[in-house]
Amino acid sequence: MKESNAVENTSPWEVALQQLEDAARELNLDPGVLEILRTPRRALEVAVPTRMDDGTIRVFKGYRVHHNTSRGPSKGGIRYHPQVNLDEVKALAMWMTWKCAVVGIPFGGAKGGVLCDPNVMSQNELQRMTRRFANEILPFIGPEKDIPAPDLGTNPQIMAWIMDTYSTREGYSVPGVVTGKPMAIGGSAGRPLATARGVTYTTLATLKHRGMSVEDARIVVQGFGNVGGGTVDLMNEQGCTVVGVSDVKGGIYNPEGLNPGALRAHARDSGSVVGYEGGETVTNDQLLTLECDVLIPAALEGVLTAQNAEDVKATVIVEAANGPTLPEADDIFEDRGIPVVPDILANAGGVTVSYFEWVQDLQAYYWTEDEVNERLRRIMEQSYVDVLALAEERKIRMRTAATMLGVQRVAEAHMTRGLYP
Question: Fewer CB within 10 Å, N- or C-terminus of the chain?
Answer without folding.
Answer: C
